[in-house]
């Protein structure tokens, strides 16, 4: 996707008075817990008027519960969303939660997003977490974006005054976040997006949307550092993981992608003042039936200078992938940019190691770098990509199959080590 993620303008409200209400048992327990600062302060949405499997909108109850959790004087807080279905509109879970150092949001239930699009801010999130330290989001629950009713309103490629649909889970300005064992289905736009986050760990995520759903990227990362995603399954209609501008120290490991558009760096170079991408490792991933495997894409005619460097893609299995390895520095999805000005994004120190499997197109390796700034230090080590067996393909000798795949290079002189199928560009 080519859309810039904006910061939010969060309204930061500080409460100086305690809300005194002790109607339920849970509340009484909460009051007692507050006295002992070392114990865990429990906040259950049911204590704030939410009812499982009740068709009503529960946004207000969730917001009231969050307020209580975040303003707690206890250092450790558990925010509980129990089993059952809960319908909610846009939610902003924002900090700072001054005295809370560990905040666990335990989602066991199935959250359903409101389908009333006028409730959402353009480019915002359905559920936004912002400016919190030490958040853990877990519990095995599901975030259901109910995207099917929204996708027909995704018309930003044809309407410049369009409203961007909401990302299901958006994290902004967060430190020390863990997201573990949750599912996200049918987001209206991206499933998960990180903006300006530090020390983020995501693991055991299950992300799904139909292969023809628009812009349902699994995970989008921007202007963040020390981010680690692992052991997840992502099947969507757009990028599996997209790594945008300004990221450093990003590790993506043991992810199964497909269907979708594969793992992408970029697109970079659309806006002025973009920051560099550096220190990316993608390791032990499997791509099945995706349009791209590993893709690096930068816009033609980029307005500013930037760079992407030190990127390693290692132990990647491609299963019937259309473009297993692809660098495209003349990305331009709109017909308006026929100006033919080369990209000003400098790509260097790119390592592809142990990439094997099958390609559904003949050009299995495409390295198309910028005419203005050729790629530097590109290494391919042990690449073995055969053509996916098509009808009659099995009858071909293996050697003929090897000959069938090829490499295409522009403005790059790559370094080749070990096995090379397809054969290198000459
Ligand atoms: C946070 O902790 C400080 C210092 O212990 C205390 O003065 C303040 O009242 C606490 N704030 C809340 C909201 O409990
Ligand atoms: C949709 O949300 C808007 C804004 O909150 C509200 O005014 C409108 O009544 C809602 N529409 C329906 C059908 O609920
Ligand atoms: C996160 O850490 C950075 C760097 O230490 C700091 O500047 C920022 O204020 C922290 N964010 C929050 C929400 O505390
Ligand atoms: C794009 O979708 C919006 C609804 O989100 C609609 O108001 C607008 O007319 C649509 N534009 C086009 C060109 O279809
Ligand atoms: C992931 O979610 C999809 C859709 O809800 C479900 O069909 C699938 O079984 C889940 N997979 C795992 C490993 O939990
Ligand atoms: C390249 O990135 C890796 C992984 O993030 C990091 O460990 C390494 O120090 C970086 N190398 C250089 C030369 O910056
Ligand atoms: C491989 O992918 C192509 C298109 O991407 C598809 O038409 C074909 O059915 C796939 N083959 C297998 C064996 O899945
Ligand atoms: C119980 C728990 O998870 N404690 C953690 C709270 O956060 C600090 C860091 O601020 C950790 O060191 C604790 O282990």
Automatic annotation (TrEMBL):
Gene Ontology terms for molecular function:
hydrolase activity, hydrolyzing O-glycosyl compounds
**Which segment of the chain is annotated as a signal peptide?**
1-26
Q: Can you tell me which residues the record assigns to a coiled coil? A: none
Protein's cellular compartments = Secreted, Cell wall
| SMART domains cross-referenced by the UniProt entry | PbH1 (SM00710)
Give any single GO term for biological process: cell wall organization
Alphabetized, the UniProt keywords read: Cell wall, Cell wall biogenesis/degradation, Glycosidase, Hydrolase, Secreted, Signal
> Which positions are catalytic residues?
261
Q: Mainly localized where?
A: secreted
Q: Which InterPro entries match?
A: Glyco_hydro_28, PbH1, Pectin_lyas_fold, Pectin_lyase_fold/virulence
User: What does the sequence similarity comment in the record state about its family?
Assistant: Belongs to the glycosyl hydrolase 28 family.
Q: Please report the name of this protein according to its UniProt entry.
A: Exopolygalacturonase
